[in-house]
Amino acid sequence: MIATESLSKRYPRVTALDRLSVDINPGVTGLVGANGAGKSTLIKILLGLSPATEGSARVLGLDVATQGAEIRERVGYMPEHDCLPPDVSATEFVVHMARMSGLPPTAARERTADTLRHVGLYEERYRPMGGYSTGMKQRVKLAQALVHDPKLVLLDEPTNGLDPVGRDEMLGLIRRVHTDFGISVLVTSHLLGELERTCDHVVVIDGGTLLRSSSTDEFTQATGSLAVEVTDTDACPDGTGALLAALDGAGLTTRPAGRTADGSAVSGRVLLVDVVDERTYDIVRDAVAGLGIGLVRMEQRRHRIAELFRDDDAPAPHPAAPGTPGAPGAPAQAPAWGAGWQQKQKKSDKRAQQNGGSVDAA
Amino acid sequence: MPPETTTAPGRGHRSQDVIHNIGYRDYSGPRLGRAYARRSLFSQSLRGAYGLGRSAKSKVLPMTLFGVMCLPAAIVVAVAVTTKMNRLPMEYTRYAIYLQAVIGLYLAAQAPQSVSRDLRFKTVPLYFSRPIERVDYVVAKFAAMASALFVLTATPLLVLYVGALLAKLDFAEQTKGFGQGLVSVTLLSLLFAGIGLVVAALTPRRGFGVAGVIAVLTIPYGAVTTVQGIALASDNPSLVSWLGLFSPITLVDGVQTAFLGATSAFPETHGPGTGAGVVYLAVLLGVIAGSYGLLMSRYRKAGL
Description:
The structure holds two protein chains of two kinds.
Chain A: E1 2-10, E2 15-24, E3 28-32, H1 39-46, E4 54-59, E5 62-63, H2 68-74, E6 75-78, H3 90-100, H4 105-118, H5 134-146, E7 152-156, H6 164-179, E8 184-189, H7 192-198, E9 201-206, E10 209-215, H8 216-220, E11 224-230, H9 239-249, E12 254-256, E13 270-274, H10 279-291, E14 295-302, H11 345-352
Parallel strand pairs in A: 3-8, 3-9, 6-7, 7-8
Antiparallel strand pairs in A: 1-2, 1-4, 4-5, 9-10, 11-13, 11-14, 12-13
Helix pairs in contact in A: 3-4, 4-5, 9-10
Chain B: E1 5-7, E2 25-27, H1 33-49, H2 57-82, H3 92-98, H4 100-120, H5 124-128, H6 134-166, H7 171-201, H8 206-233, H9 237-243, H10 248-259, H11 274-298
Antiparallel strand pairs in B: 1-2
């Protein structure tokens, strides 16, 4: 779908993209990066609107430097900012945009009706857009990007300004754009939790360079872990510590939860247990029963994309939850990006913002 | 259902008696490309200049001005026909000069509507994410504004011409006058469209655009007329004919006086002769080309 080859874009003062080489396959791909990481610059270059300083890029097999118009005919673009004139109706606006993409008048009208229905706008599409809610406006913006049946859509922050429900609906819609409509999607966001739920593949750029590009499964499913919280009893005044020792004895890799992936502190009473196989659950259950302590919860927890932002350059054991006794399980065994709990407080605060309002994965 | 819209294979079934199909349908019909997109933008902008395809409220002003523009022509024709005059009481070329205030008002209202809105609501990046390029956008907007002005200024001339023929005035003479009038309003439309769009494209605020266009049209005209009056009073008629270079409407007046057989509206009809007329024409074409150039550079940075 998209292939860039040491793509660079330098402005007089800043380098927006620095030798970025990335391959993006059909499917839903998330493009993650902080503000100013070069996401918008990349989109501009991919649409053939801004020449790259060096390197090359191909979209749908077309060269961005020479075949910009052909690319733009086959690609849809949903900008981040508001772009809807308030005094025309959604129907008229989308019809016009369809014609601007080269659709003949009848086809433009027909596809507009179809597309608006698919994004969930019904009777209100005949009203001027000035009176629309943010959610409806986002739908119109998505519709104008889809109306000419592109092979690929570039969505720039499609969930911006939406409430949680609207956000879920938009994410579901984006997922459907690929599964039901067969259109590949490149979606940018700085909210990792969102991309985790929507994308097949995630590309992370930072400061114009590629940080990581791999499938969402690899990010999130390679290591499941189990959050276990227990009570204390008279016989066992430090239930958590006792369980930790017991599980270590049973050969499981455990550690205090410390901080959750999004950086918020959790109780020092929660233990994270790496799930090896089905037996792990039984071992935990038996250990808890053996100690005679109460089990408050046992929760499946995935590793999350947010953790990839955590550097693994903090090798010194530095448990973030000092209240918990007992050394954590061997950090060396943990996957590099799963070792985030160790990392410096300062960094995790900074990165925490990246993950915005995402909630714990169940 | 046109044949180009086909059901995507494997997604959703369509049978004759099912009206609503929830499944997504691919589009495999023609994609008409850049030239078609440019034409679409042109026709949308031209229609928009008369409020067509927009809310009822936005039709009021352009349609009213269009009516005001045609009304005097209708009166002139009615008078000519009923009193059996042997010539029209108004020259074709003079009509737009008389009604310049109406034309100016129309331009001030519609030029910002055409370009400031796209800037203000950031629709411009959407256009540039489509096959068209900057030059297509500028050409389409320019052509649409000029065409809208041409419709506004040429329709009353047509009314006059038809009326003159109904009044059985001399066909050859009337056709010649009508032709000269059309050339004159074409130049006027291009000039005014260029100036109006350049001023309007400077600001995303519609109000500033309106005020700017009115200022650019009226202040130079006022200044030129005043200085012409002074030059005339100090017995310097040749200066009068040169001063007309400095305001849009007097520029058009000068060109049509020199080449299109018009009677100048300058004080005591001291219009430019053929020699000065060449300068007038050069300046007029230069301003049109300059506005085009300015618009092109204006949109260099207005992309995504």
